[in-house]
Every structure is written in C-alpha cells, then in structure tokens.
C-alpha cells in the first residue's frame, strides 16, 4: 500500500483535474500487454468502485510478430479474467492493409483506434482510456519538434480528447514500473520497441538519454512546457472559434445528413473579415473549417497553411488551391470557400467545369434542364397569358409594376437581384426558345440599356465566381439572349403598351451548386 497510494492519488488527481470520468461511465481500457497498459487496467479496477464505472479491456492483435503477437493476446485474456474485467480482442492482418507509400506504424495506429471506437460503440462506452505517460509526452513533443510542428502539435498528447482519456499522463515510466513490481504484475515486452529503425524508438533509445544528460529534469520540464503551450493554444482557439462564427457566410449540405464531417460539403468565409484578423487566428480557422468538413484536420501541415494565407493576401479575385483529402479552397471575390469532394479522389473543380447543356424550353409547362453529364441544373415553369389592360397592375418579381410613362416599357425599376421570374412579349419572340449555358463571347442588351454588354462582364460585375458561371442558364430567342436566369433580363422581347400576350418564365428549382440568389447576396 505504501507504493500503491501515491500512484492511485496521482492518477486520481489527473482524473479529477481534467474531469475524465463521471459516475456510472463505461470505460474501454486499451491494453497492449505492455507495462503501461497493464498498470492502467489495474489502477482503473482499483478506482472502479469509487467512480462506479464499468470496465472493458480491449486488445488488437496486429499479427506483426507471429507467435509473439498471439501470446500477447492470450496473456491479456488471462489478465482480464484474473481482474474480473470483460475482454474484447480483435485480430487484424495489418500488412494487408498497407497501400503504396503507407507507413506500417501509421496503418497499425489507424486500425487500433478504429477498433477502440468500434468497441466503445458496441458497449455504449463514454470513455476510452489509454496508458500514455509522462515519458510518452516528452518523446512526442521532441518528435513533433523535429518534424517542425506548430504550437498545436508542440502541446503534445492532450489529457482528454473527445472520449479519449489518459489517467497516467502525469506519471513517469519509472513510477509505473515500480508499481508493477510492487503489485507483482506481469506484462509482455514488445520486441519491436527495441528497434531503432522507427523514429519514436530512436528518440526513446538514443536522443532522450542524451537530452537527459544536459537536463536530468528534462521530462518534467517538457510536461510543464506542455501545460503552458496548451493554455496558450486553448486561448487562441477560443478567440478563433468566435471569429469563425462571425466570418462564416454559408455552405452547402447534402440533404438528410449531418453537418460535421459527413453532410456538409463546403464552408464559406468572408475574405474582408478574415484579413482583419491576425494570422494566428486565420490559421486556427483554417483547421476549424477542415475539421467541420472532414471531422479531422490530420494530414494538413505548414505548407498548406502558408498556401491558404497567400491565397487570402493575394490580389487575384478568382484563385484556388488543392489540399489533401479532396479539399479545395477557392477565393472568389469577397469570399473564400473550402469545399469537399463528395467522392474521394474527385476534384469538385471538375464538377463545375466543362459542363454543357442545351435544350428547348417548353411553353405552358415545365422544363427540367439536365447537362450532358447527367447533372441536374434547374427547372423552369412557363405560362402564356393575355396582357392586362394598361391601367391595371401586373405582378413581376414579387412586386406590382405598371407601364413606365417615360419609356412606355413594362417593369423598369424591378429589383434585378430577385429576378427569379421574367416577363416577355410572347409575340416578339422567335420559337423555339432555347436554354443553354454560358459560352465565351456571349453578349446581350440588358433591360433598361441600349448597348450590348458581355455576359462575362455581367458575371464580374455581379461577382459571380468563375466556376459557377457555366451552371447559370441563359434563355435565348433565336440568337438573342433574353434572360440570364436569376441574374439579369435582356431588353429583347420586352413587354410594352402594345403587348397582347405575356410569356412568364419562372425558376422553380435550382440544383447542383447553382445558388444564384446566394451568390448575389
């Protein structure tokens, strides 16, 4: 008990300080069979009654060391039985999961954590406990320093991350080994831990002893540094969180899905507001956006952050950068959008480029516009009706208008930003009316003007992103563009005092990434 009480007290203090456990929690304890995980499981069993927690031991056999791996599994089953803890084991052929360029350790780690998550879900566990200790903390911080990590990475291993808890994080490996010796706890030794070909092992076996030679209290000082850096990082993240909420301009979701990591396909932020912030806040907002779309920001490094900052500070109104995991960042006038491909390996940029559609507009009916690639673009509804007497009002774009006494034209003064409905003199139009997408060199005479205007210049004026322009339908009568749907009506075929029949064209639905109204907000 002399040696047990200090260990239990340290573990309990860590649990209390970081609020790791609640009464009645079910906890999955990750047990590899090494001294750290064996002591973790033993201590949790000693604290189980006090916290009223239920324990489950979880072990994954990576099948990397042949019989040695199988012996580890058998040992853990026996240990769990002796401690009266249910045990869940899974065997995985880790080498078969390897793809070209993969690191064996990274693949094993992903398989391991996927198994822990799977086990926690099966048993409805609120927490997953791992045996990381103070030595692991120092080694991790040194390894990340050597890899050029930023403040977030240099914070080291968090005591709590989501459902993951580390009750032994303030305890050294020497203390853990002494506890195991005092309690006569058996454990297994992984032979691969002695191989210096892995970076972490090389740091543990070669670099850490050298550093301890310069500073015997190095591990304790690194633990203190971790707490200092974590405090600063937490503050910066809290500031970034408020700024992120203020900067978000919208995004798209996949219907019927959630908004974090699965359903949300894009996040849009205000360029002006972003550029008013310190770079340290912008960087954290970059990671927040990635986490919102993917559920994790793992795999993004300083080079990606620098590209993002350059995109924000550049002068080009339309520019994009490609990021890992199928993310693309677009700067489009006053907004920057981070977008996730809905299919792995498919660049969303290609989705909006090179799309072609051209079809006839059905009169007195509905027309669904579908591109040659099968993408649904929009749906229009048309109706021909007799013109009202000149003294009566006619509804257009959600407001009533009468014939303008100066121009003798109908509809002058309509709010062009809300043009989801357009009206034409049906008898002036040439049948059939066509719907097609924008082509280079397209021009028209805008309503209320006498000269031609390039459609491209209209898009620039309205700050419509380049990658969205090919999705905006144009309505044509013969060779004349009479309506850039939802953006601006043309002068050709306009309604006048002599009009007898009015053609009403309305945008009923807009599909794909075509959100004209949002683009014009």
Descriptive notes:
This protein has 521 residues and is α+β, with helices and mostly antiparallel strands. 38% of the residues lie in helices and 21% in strands. Helix 2 crosses helix 8 and helix 6 packs across helix 10. The protein starts with a helix and ends with a helix. The C terminus is likely disordered.
Provide the descriptors you would attach to this structure in a database record:
single chain, 521 residues, alpha+beta, Rossmann fold, Uridine Diphospho-n-acetylenolpyruvylglucosamine Reductase, domain 3, Phenylalanyl-tRNA Synthetase, Chain B, domain 3, 3 domains, 6-stranded mixed beta sheet, 5-stranded antiparallel beta sheet, 17 helices, 24 strands
Please bin the fraction of helical residues. Answer: 25-40%
Poorly predicted regions: 253-261, 343-353, 389-417, 513-521
Distance between the termini: 69 Å
**What global shape is seen?**
elongated
Task: Give me the number of helical elements.
Answer: 17
Mean pLDDT, rounded to whole units? 85
CATH architecture of the largest domain: 3-Layer(aba) Sandwich
**Can you say what the CATH homologous superfamily of the largest domain is?**
HUPs
Number of separate strands: 24
Rg over alpha carbons: 32 Å
Here the CATH topology of the largest domain equals Rossmann fold
Tally of distinct domains = 3
Q: Strand count, sense and closure of the main sheet?
A: 6 strands, mixed
- β-sheet strand percentage: 15-25%
Side-by-side strand order of the widest sheet: 3-2-1-4-6-5
Broad CATH class of the largest domain = Alpha Beta
Helix vs. strand class: alpha+beta
């Amino acid at each position: 008990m002399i040696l047990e009480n200090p260990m239990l007290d340290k573990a309990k203090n860590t649990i209390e300080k970081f609020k790791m456990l609640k009464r009645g929690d079910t906890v999955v304890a990750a047990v590899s069979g090494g001294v750290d995980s064996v002591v973790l499981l033993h201590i949790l069993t000693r604290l189980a009654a006090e916290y009223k927690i239920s324990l489950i031991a979880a072990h994954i056999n990576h099948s990397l060391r042949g019989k040695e791996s199988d012996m580890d599994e058998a040992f853990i089953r026996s240990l769990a039985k002796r401690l009266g803890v249910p045990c869940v084991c899974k065997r995985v052929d880790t080498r078969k999961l390897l793809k070209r360029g993969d690191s064996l350790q990274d693949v094993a780690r992903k398989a391991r954590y996927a198994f822990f998550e799977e086990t926690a879900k099966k048993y409805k566990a609120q927490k997953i406990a791992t045996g990381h200790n103070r030595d692991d903390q120092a080694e991790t911080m040194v390894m990340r320093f050597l890899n050029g990590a930023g403040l977030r990475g240099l914070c080291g291993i968090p005591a709590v991350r989501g459902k993951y808890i580390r009750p032994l994080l303030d305890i050294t490996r020497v203390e853990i080994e002494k506890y195991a010796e005092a309690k006569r706890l058996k454990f297994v030794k992984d032979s691969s831990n002695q191989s210096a070909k892995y970076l972490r092992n090389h740091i543990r076996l070669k670099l850490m002893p050298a550093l301890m030679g310069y500073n015997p209290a190095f591990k304790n000082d690194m633990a203190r540094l971790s707490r200092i850096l974590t405090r600063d990082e937490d503050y910066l993240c809290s500031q970034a969180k408020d700024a992120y909420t203020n900067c978000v301009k919208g995004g798209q979701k996949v219907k019927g899905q959630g908004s974090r990591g699965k359903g949300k396909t894009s996040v849009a932020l205000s360029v002006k507001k972003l550029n008013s912030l310190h770079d340290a806040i912008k960087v954290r907002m970059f990671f927040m956006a990635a986490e919102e779309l993917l559920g994790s920001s793992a795999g993004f490094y300083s080079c990606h952050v620098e590209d993002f900052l350059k995109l924000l500070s550049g002068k080009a109104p339309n520019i994009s950068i490609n990021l890992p995991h199928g993310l693309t960042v677009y700067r489009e006038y006053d907004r920057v959008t981070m977008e996730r491909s809905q299919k792995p390996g498919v660049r969303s940029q290609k989705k909006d480029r090179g799309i072609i559609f051209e079809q006839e507009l059905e009169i007195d009916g509905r027309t669904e516009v579908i591109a040659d690639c099968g993408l649904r673009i929009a749906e229009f509804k048309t109706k021909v009706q007799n013109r009202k007497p000149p003294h009566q009002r006619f509804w257009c774009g959600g407001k009533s208008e009468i014939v303008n006494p100066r121009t003798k034209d109908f509809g002058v003064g309509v709010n062009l930003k809300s043009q989801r409905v357009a009206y034409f003199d049906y008898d002036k139009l040439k049948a059939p009316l066509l719907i097609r997408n924008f082509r280079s060199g397209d021009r028209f005479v805008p309503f209320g003007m006498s000269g031609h205007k390039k459609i491209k210049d209209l898009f620039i004026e309205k700050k419509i992103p380049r990658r969205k322009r090919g999705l905006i339908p144009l309505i044509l009568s013969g060779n004349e563009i009479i309506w850039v749907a939802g953006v601006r009506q043309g002068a050709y075929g306009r309604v006048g005092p002599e009009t007898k029949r009015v053609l009403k064209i309305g945008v009923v639905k807009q599909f794909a990434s075509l959100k004209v109204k949002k683009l014009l907000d």
